[in-house]
Write a structure and sequence with these properties.
By secondary structure, the chain is mainly beta. It contains 6 helices and 46 strands. The protein has a 28-stranded antiparallel β-sheet that branches.
C-alpha cells in the first residue's frame, strides 16, 4: 500500500478510538530490543514493543517489578499486587500461563502453576525490561502466546558503580536497596541486597453470597444487617485486615570478557518473602453496637448470610526462590547460549481450620489452633542455544531449547497453623514433571531496501510424566495413583512483514501459531475440591496483528490491532460438577482489540504521554473473566532541573470474575485513580523523591480492597 493511502487509514483508525495516556517510562526509538533474538531498534521490530529502562524506574517509587510494568500498554496488573502478594498479570488478556516472563533469559513462570512471584524479584539491579506483545511462538514456544517480558539485569561498565535507595511510606512501608558493581581488566563482579517490608494496607475484603431460606431446613437469623455489596448478591462482611509483607533479595554476578566479542556471565538471585494478615474486622454489629463475627444474618430482603469466625483468618505464607543464570555470548560469530536453574525450594502457605470461642480482633490475631499447610516447591531447568547466520539478504536464526519443570506438593494437617514445624502430619502428596525439546528456525529476509520479511518455524515435543496423587484414607491406609505419561508435538509457524516508509514511519503485519501445554497443577494436582485431569490437551492459539509506528524527535505514537483465537481452552468446571476438574472447552476463546500509545514533548520542560488498550475477550458470546475491556493511562511531566514532577492517571474498566464455588460471574469495580510524584536532585546522583498514590483517595473493590491514598518518600544515590 502506498504511503499516502496508508497514513490516512491509520489516522482514521486512531480517530475512531478513545485515546488516553501512558506514563513516560518508555525510551522509544533508540533502545535496542533483544527479546526478539536479534538486536533491532523498537521501531523496526514487527511487533508492539515497549522498553522500561532503569532510568525511568528511578523516577517513581517502584516497590516491585509489577509496579514498573503496571502502566505498560495492554498490561493489566491486579491491585492485589500492591500488597506484595503474588498476583497474576495479564497482557492482552493473556495471563502468566500464556505469557513468557524471563530474568536474563531464564523463564520465571512457576513449574507448579506458571505464576510469577513479582514480590521476590529485585528492583535495584535492573537495566531494562523488554515487553514484546503478540505471539512469540516460533522463537520462544508455549508460554509466549500473549508475548514475552524479558527482565535484564545491569552489567558493570565502569571500574566502580552502584546505586542505593532508602524509602519510607504509609503503613510503615520500608525499602532499602544497595547494589555495587566493579570492573577490573576483563573481570566484572556485582553484589546487591534489597529489603522491603510493610505493615500492609487493608486487603482481602470478605464477601459472601446471599442465599434464600431453604423451606425444608429453615434457620433463625442471629441478626438483621444492612451491608454494602461488592456485586450482585455479594455482600462485604469485613476484612482479614492488613497484609504484612517482608521481602529480602540477595544478588551476585560474575563475568569475564575473553575479548571485545566473547563473554561469559553468571548471575545468582536469592529471594525470601513472608506474608501474613493482622487486625481483621467485621461490618456486622448487634443492636448494642458490639461486633459480630459469626452466625446466620438476615438481609433486608429476607435472604440470609452464613458466616464463620475462621472466614476472617488470612493465609500465612512464605516463598523462597533461587535463580541461577549462566550465559555465553560470541557476538562476532553471533552464537549465544544460556543455561538456567530456578528453584522454589520453600513455597507454601497455611490456613486455620478453626477459630477461638471468644472472638474479637485480638483473639483472632493470637489464634494458633489447628489448621492446614500446603507446601508446593517446584524446579525448572532451561537450556537454550542459538546462532544467527548472515548471507546476502538473509539473517537466519537457528536454535535448540530444552526445558524441564517439576512440582511436588504435600498437604499437612497442623496442630498449630502459625507454626509449621510443630505437630504436622501429611495427608496428601501430588507431583509430576514436564519435559520439552524444541527446534526453531527464523529467516529475516530483506526483500527490499525498506521491507523485511520474517519467516519462522518451531517444532515442540512436550512430554508430561511421573504424575502421582497419594492420599491418606480414613482407615489410615494410603491410596496411590500413578498417572500415565503423555506426549504432544506441534509445529508453530510465524510470518511477519515490516515496511519502512521513511526513517520515522513504519508498519507491520504478522501471523503466529502457538502451542501451550497445560500447567502441571491442572494435570496432576488434587486440591481437595478439584481433581487432577491427566488427559488435558494443550491449547493452540492463532494470532493476527497489524500495526503502525511513528518516531521523531518530539512525537512518537504507535497503534496495533490484534486478533487471537484459542482452541481447546483449559477451563475449570463449576462446583457441583462431577468430577470437578480442569477440562478442554469445546468453545473457542477470542481476544481482539486495539492498542495505542503516544508521547509528545511540547518544549524543553513539558511533555505528555498516553496509552489506551481495548480488549474484547469473549467465549460463546459472553465476556471472558478478569480482563478489563478498557485500560487507560495518561498524564503530564514537568522537567526543570533540579525538579521533575509527574502527574499520572489510570482508568481500568470493570472485570468479570467467576465465583470459586458456583462458577457464576460477578463484577469487580472499575476505577480511576490519580497519582503525583516529584523528584528533587540535591546534587549530581543524589535525588529526593516523594509520591502520593491514589491522590483523591478513591475506594474500590477488585478481588481485594485496593490501596487507598498512600505516601512514599525516598532518597536515591547513584555513583
Amino acid at each position: 500500500m502506498e504511503k499516502r493511502k496508508l497514513i490516512p487509514l491509520v489516522l482514521a483508525m486512531v480517530a475512531g478510538t478513545s485515546i488516553a495516556y501512558a506514563a513516560p517510562q518508555y525510551d522509544l526509538g533508540e533502545v535496542i530490543v533483544t527479546a526478539t533474538r536479534l538486536e533491532e531498534k523498537t521501531q523496526h521490530v514487527p511487533a508492539s514493543v515497549n522498553v522500561v529502562t532503569a532510568e525511568e524506574m528511578k523516577k517513581r517509587p517502584v516497590q516491585n517489578l509489577a509496579d514498573a510494568l503496571a502502566r505498560t500498554t495492554g498490561v493489566y496488573r491486579s491491585p492485589v499486587a500492591d500488597g506484595g502478594m503474588s498476583s497474576d498479570m495479564t497482557m492482552r488478556g493473556f495471563g502468566s500461563a500464556e505469557t513468557l516472563i524471563m530474568l536474563d533469559g531464564q523463564p520465571l513462570n512457576s513449574g507448579w502453576n506458571s505464576s510469577v512471584d513479582w514480590a521476590v524479584l529485585p528492583t535495584t539491579d535492573i537495566e531494562k525490561i523488554e515487553v514484546v506483545r503478540g505471539a512469540g511462538s516460533s522463537l520462544y514456544g508455549g508460554r509466549a502466546v500473549g508475548g514475552v517480558i524479558n527482565i535484564i539485569t545491569a552489567k558493570s561498565q565502569e571500574e566502580l558503580s552502584g546505586n542505593a535507595v532508602l524509602s519510607y511510606g504509609s503503613d510503615k512501608t520500608k525499602r532499602f536497596g544497595l547494589n555495587t558493581k566493579v570492573r577490573k581488566d576483563n573481570w566484572r563482579m556485582g553484589i546487591g541486597y534489597e529489603k522491603r517490608s510493610t505493615d500492609g494496607y487493608v486487603g482481602y475484603y470478605i464477601d459472601k453470597k446471599a442465599a434464600k431460606q431453604n423451606p425444608k431446613k429453615p434457620v433463625t437469623p442471629t441478626h438483621k444487617v444492612d451491608l454494602a455489596q461488592s456485586a450482585r448478591d455479594y455482600y462485604i462482611i469485613g476484612s482479614r485486615g492488613e497484609k504484612l509483607n517482608d521481602t529480602e533479595t540477595w544478588s551476585f554476578s560474575l563475568g569475564y570478557d575473553f575479548d571485545e566479542d566473547r563473554s561469559l556471565d553468571y548471575a545468582f538471585t536469592r529471594s525470601k518473602h513472608n506474608y501474613d494478615y493482622r487486625n481483621p474486622f467485621t461490618y456486622v454489629y448487634d443492636k448494642s453496637g458490639n461486633p459480630v463475627w459469626g452466625g446466620v444474618w438476615e438481609l433486608p430482603d429476607k435472604r440470609i448470610l452464613k458466616i464463620s469466625p475462621d472466614n476472617y483468618l488470612g493465609n500465612y505464607g512464605v516463598r523462597d526462590m533461587d535463580v541461577h543464570r549462566l550465559q555465553f555470548a560470541d557476538r562476532k560469530n553471533q552464537l549465544f547460549a544460556h543455561f538456567g536453574y530456578t528453584n522454589r525450594f520453600n513455597d507454601g502457605f497455611s490456613t486455620s481450620s478453626s477459630a477461638p470461642d471468644i472472638v474479637n480482633t485480638d483473639t483472632l490475631n493470637a489464634w494458633n489452633g489447628p489448621g492446614e499447610f500446603s507446601y508446593y516447591p517446584s524446579k525448572a531447568y532451561n537450556f537454550d542455544i542459538h546462532k544467527n547466520i548472515d548471507f546476502k539478504d538473509h539473517t537466519l536464526t537457528v536454535g535448540y531449547n530444552y526445558n524441564r519443570e517439576s512440582f511436588a506438593q504435600t498437604r499437612f494437617d497442623l496442630k498449630h497453623w502459625r507454626n509449621r514445624d510443630t505437630g504436622r502430619s501429611p495427608y496428601e502428596y501430588n507431583g509430576g514433571r514436564g519435559i520439552l525439546h524444541a527446534l526453531y528456525l527464523q529467516d529475516k529476509w530483506q526483500v527490499a531496501d525498506t521491507t523485511d520479511l520474517y519467516l519462522g518455524m518451531r517444532y515442540d515435543r512436550y512430554k508430561k510424566e511421573k504424575g502421582y496423587n497419594n492420599t491418606l484414607q480414613d482407615d489410615g491406609t494410603w491410596k496411590y495413583n500413578n498417572f500415565a505419561s503423555g506426549t504432544y508435538a506441534e509445529w508453530s509457524p510465524k510470518v511477519a512483514v515490516e515496511h519502512r516508509f521513511d526513517e520515522n514511519n513504519s508498519a507491520f503485519i504478522s501471523y503466529g501459531h502457538s502451542f501451550n501445554p497445560p500447567v502441571l497443577y491442572q494435570v496432576y494436582r488434587n486440591s481437595g475440591t478439584i481433581d487432577p485431569n491427566p488427559d488435558l490437551k494443550p491449547e493452540t492459539t492463532n494470532t493476527w496483528e497489524v500495526g503502525y509506528k511513528h518516531y521523531d524527535q518530539n512525537l512518537t505514537w504507535d497503534v496495533t490491532l490484534f486478533h487471537a483465537k484459542t482452541k481447546d481452552l483449559v477451563a475449570l468446571k463449576p462446583r457441583g460438577s462431577s468430577p470437578r476438574n480442569y477440562y478442554n472447552s469445546e468453545s473457542d476463546l477470542v481476544r481482539r482489540g486495539i492498542e495505542f500509545g503516544t508521547q509528545y514533548r511540547f518544549n524543553q520542560n513539558w511533555s505528555a504521554y498516553a496509552n489506551y488498550a481495548l480488549t474484547d475477550a469473549k467465549i460463546d458470546g459472553d465476556r471472558y473473566y478478569d480482563i478489563p475491556r478498557h485500560l487507560v493511562h495518561f498524564g503530564v511531566q514537568w522537567d526543570a532541573k533540579p525538579w521533575q514532577v509527574l502527574l499520572d492517571n489510570t482508568y481500568v474498566s470493570e472485570r468479570q470474575a467467576p465465583d470459586v464455588d458456583t462458577g457464576e460471574y460477578k463484577s469487580e469495580d472499575s476505577y480511576f485513580i490519580t497519582s503525583l510524584s516529584a523528584n528533587y536532585e540535591i546534587q549530581e546522583g543524589l535525588v529526593l523523591q516523594g509520591d502520593i498514590y491514589n491522590l483523591f483517595d478513591k475506594k474500590f473493590y477488585a478481588g481485594e480492597a485496593a490501596r487507598e491514598r498512600t505516601y512514599t518518600v525516598s532518597l536515591q544515590y547513584r555513583f
